[in-house]
Structures are given as structure tokens and as C-alpha cells.
Amino acid sequence: MGEDQLLTRRDFLGMASLLGGGALLSGCGLVAQAPPITGSIIGQAHRLGHRLVQEGFPPPKKTLDTTVAVVGGGIAGLSAGWKLKRSGLKDFLVLELEAEFGGNSRSGENKVSRYPWAAHYIPFPRPESTAVHELLRDLGVEKGADEAGKPVYDERAVCFAPQERLFIHGRWQEGIFPKLGATGEDVRQWTAFEHRMAAFRRMTDKDGRKAFAIPMALSSRRSDLLELDTLSMSDWLKREGFTSPRLRWYADYACRDDFGTTVEDTSAWAGIHYFAGRGAGDDDQVLTWPEGNGFVTSALCRTLKENLAGPLLVFDVAEGPSGVTVDAWDPKSRESVRVRAKAALVCVPVFLARRIVASLRRQAPAWTGTFSYAPWMVANLTVEDPPVGKGFPTAWDNVIFNSAGLGYVVAGHQSLEQQRNSEVWTYYYPMPQTDAAKARTTALSRSWGDWRDLILADLSRAHPGISRQVRGIDVMVLGHAMVKPRVGMMWGQDRLPFRPSV
Ligand SMILES: Cc1cc2nc3c(=O)[nH]c(=O)nc-3n(C[C@H](O)[C@H](O)[C@H](O)COP(=O)(O)OP(=O)(O)OC[C@H]3O[C@@H](n4cnc5c(N)ncnc54)[C@H](O)[C@@H]3O)c2cc1C
């Protein structure tokens, strides 16, 4: 569905009166005034990042020496720092351009709740995800193992029930597959699809490697599996006889949710990985916190407080005979600083690495050009007397059928309080259009009011009158949110040098 179809005339008329803040006329006379909705677009660091393209920087006046310079303080940079520290190294720096560390795993807080700004959960890690288990044990989230050797997690971090619901045909149902109103054939195909994914989940090759592992480098290299990367998820569904429009919507939702791409643009290998890379039954659960993965980020920042340096915009990383020099610009002092290190770990998206790493700037290998990034918008809404709606009760994740958005996650779902008068809802809106640059321009040109109207029009399909309950909407536009796992991207020739030979 095109995003413009989201807004119906009725929505606009309803909202025009609500958002105007004036008194509303109903059939019986004057009714209460709609309270104003406050908010803004926050986190505009991309403007700082644009300096990399647009301007030169003054030569460094100051030099710092360290053993390892980690460039980028997102979850990749912070977890690299955590691993360095665990390995006994004390002398390293993590350089970050934003005032806050965490990148797409950042979080925020208001008087109602903490909330995520993008990443909000970690699926129960499978046994091969050894680094994730190590990190979770270090953070006290993984408490030990039961008699069968299965990990035991802090129960406050295991997503409380109910986990997911879907709004369809005017009511909420449990789970994301659209069961309400489904035909017998829809259900038959969905069941067959689930069986196929379960088979992929159990599949191993002759060397004992899983067909779909996390990290993906541990996955099987069997040719029939890697060939799945040469067709789209949409073509794979068709090839396998999965023609049900509801099953297609379900697969498309999964691709938009996990990658910010449509089913047509997603590699079938990646699309299947979404389902088959996770556990099954009791192991198909997620770890989450009110602030989402900001919980992990904050814990890592506490551990690494001696090693964090920012805000600093790194503009050059150059290898020399005796190590690496990392030049960064300090937006506060408006001066540059040089960090001399034995090694540097560049933990920024590839489109930025191409600009700052001197060797990539000189001659970028082909793989650096294969990365395309989908833009996203994430909003945190403060909702007073949050509505529940008909049918199934409020879940952690609340999805609206046939919407361009992905619905909302209730930040306070993990709270132990029974009654909450106000809640924060995190609303997710990917922009999966094939032309990512055009989608980015659209995303960045929208005003706060445009986003507010779009969000409220979408949510009012499931919660009519929601505008009257929303008190605040803060919006973050992530111009380059996620790498698109397009056809050929995962196992194609271009990325061969980039891939670890495990
Ligand atoms: C909407 C959304 C929802 C998501 N949900 C989930 C989820 O539920 N679970 C999950 O596991 N994953 C999720 N993800 C994916 C996850 O957020 C990312 O995979 C992860 O955060 C990427 O981390 P990173 O450190 O590689 O990159 P980033 O988060 O992009 O971090 C890179 C960091 O480098 C900094 N930087 C960039 N250039 C420079 C420079 N020149 N100098 C200094 N610093 C620089 C940036 O400011 C940033 O902080 C989601 C992503 C999005 C967008």
C-alpha cells in the first residue's frame, strides 16, 4: 500500500478539527476542547554528519595517544569497547559524534516512562550466538542455566504476555498473522509456511552448520541455500506456491519490520533468515525493557565511562607505518583533535566509512557500493488514559493490518504497575521505497506537523479519537536507518572480501 493511501479524507477532516485546538461541534452542541499536542523533531545529528561532505575541517591542534581508537559509539562500537575491556585492555577510546552514545540503540525518558528510539528487543539468543550470551551474562540478564542446560533469564526482561496483536476488521486479534476473516486456504498456506520455516530452522549441513545462523557468518554455505539470495522473498513465495494475499502481507510485514524493505526488495535468504534464524516454541521469545535496547547501551556506557569521548566527528582515519591516526572535529570548541593509536576499529555505517577511511576514499572496493540504507521514522507518543480497543487486550507490540506503519510498542508493558494512567507508545514507520534517496528526501522534508498528522491518522483507524488522548509526540527521522538486504546482497560476489571465512 502506498503511504499516501494511509490518510483518508475522513481522517483529515477529523484531525483538522482536533488539531486546530478549537472547540468541537458535535450533533448535540459544543464539546470539550482538544488539549494541544506538544513535541518536536529531535536528534538532527545528520546535519553534523553532512559536514563530512560539505566542508573542510581545521588541522588538529591537539594530539592524544591511545592503544585502540573505536570510531562510532553505536551498539557495534560500544560492544567492541566492552570486549576490549573484558580482554584486559584499559587504554582505548570510543569516539562518537552525537552527544549521546548508542546510535540506533539509543533511548529517551519523560515523566511517564523510559522509551526506545529505535532498537527495542533482542530475540532469545540461540546457542551459536556466544558473544550475545556472554554480554547478557555480564549484564546480569542471563542468570545461569536450568537442569537441561538452557539459559535462565531475568524474568523482568522476558517480554510479558500478551506479546503481539493485530487490528483487522474493526477489532484486535491475538498474534500477527491475519486470522480474522481468513479463508481455509489462507490458513492452510500459513500452516505450510510455518512448517517450511521450522524445517529451515532445524536444517544443518554435512559440516553441522545451521542453514540460518546468527551471526550469519556461521550459516551453511550449501549452494542450494545460498541460491536463495539470488531471488526475492516475493519470488520465493510464488515459486513455492504461497499465493495467499494474507500470507504475502505477513511476509511483507516481517521484511519491513526487520529490515525496512518490502517483500519484493528483500533477498529470499534474508527473508527466510528472519523466521528461521530464531528459536522455536519456548525459545521464540524476546528480551525487552521499557527503554528497549537502550538498556544494553546504558549499561555498556556505565562500564566504559573512562573510555568514551564525544561529541567528536571523526573525519579522517589514516593508516601509517607506525599505527593509525584518527582526526576528529569537536563541535563544542570548533577545533580538531588527532588521536594516534596502534589500531582503529571503524564501527560506523559503510556509507560513512567510505568518506572517513583514507584507503576507502582513495579506492572504494565494489562491496562498499552495494550498501543501500532505508530511512525510518520513529515517534514516541505520550498517551493519557490509553485506549484498549475491541477484541484482544493491549499487547507489547500492536500492529495495524494494511498500514504503511508497523504499529506501536507500549514502552511500559514491562512495568509491574497494574494501572497506568499514561503510557508512552513507540510508533515505527519504515520507508521501504526502492528509491531510498527519494524516500530520504521525503522523510527529511516533512515537518513535525506532517508527521503528527500521519501518525494520528494511522492510529485513529484502530483508536478513533486518539488525538484527544495524545499529549506529546516526539519524532526522530533516521535517514540511513538500516542496510537493505536486497537480492544478491547477502552472499553475492561483491561482498566476498568483506565476509569472514568461518
Ligand atoms: C527503527 C529501528 C528498529 C530496530 N529494532 C531493532 C531491534 O528491536 N533489535 C535489534 O537488535 N536491532 C534493531 N534494529 C537494528 C539496530 O538498531 C542496529 O543494527 C544497531 O543499532 C546498529 O548499530 P551500529 O553500532 O552498527 O550502528 P549505529 O547504530 O548506526 O551506530 C553508529 C554510530 O556511529 C556514530 N558515527 C557515525 N559517523 C561518525 C563519525 N564520523 N564520527 C563519530 N561517530 C560517528 C553515529 O552517530 C552512531 O552513534 C533497529 C533499527 C532501527 C532503525
What is the rounded distance between the termini? 40 Å
Give the C-alpha Rg. Answer: 24 Å
Can you name the CATH architecture of the domain at 45-99 and 310-364? Answer: 3-Layer(bba) Sandwich
The side-by-side strand order for the widest beta sheet comes to 12-11-20-21-22-19-23
Shape: globular
Question: Structural class, please?
Answer: alpha+beta
Roughly how much helix do the residues carry, as a percent range? 25-40%
Q: Say what the CATH topology of the domain at 45-99 and 310-364 is.
A: FAD/NAD(P)-binding domain
**CATH-wise, what's the superfamily of the domain at 45-99 and 310-364?**
FAD/NAD(P)-binding domain
Tag the structure with descriptive keywords.
binds flavin-adenine dinucleotide; seven-stranded mixed beta sheet; four-stranded mixed beta sheet; 502 residues; single chain; globular; 15 helices; alpha+beta
Describe what this molecule looks like in 3D.
The strands form seven sheets. A seven-stranded mixed sheet has the order 12-11-20-21-22-19-23. Strands 3-17-16-15 form a four-stranded mixed sheet, with no helix packed on it. Helices cover 28% and strands 23% of the residues. The protein has a domain at 45-99 and 310-364: FAD/NAD(P)-binding domain (3-Layer(bba) Sandwich). It is globular, with a radius of gyration of 24 Å. With 502 residues, the chain is of the alpha+beta class. The model is unreliable at 1-30 (pLDDT under 50). Bound molecules: flavin-adenine dinucleotide (FAD). Flavin-adenine dinucleotide is lined by residues 45, 49, 71-77, 95-98, 103-105, 118-122, 293, 313-314, 347-349, 352, 356, 376, 378, 428, 478, 481-482.
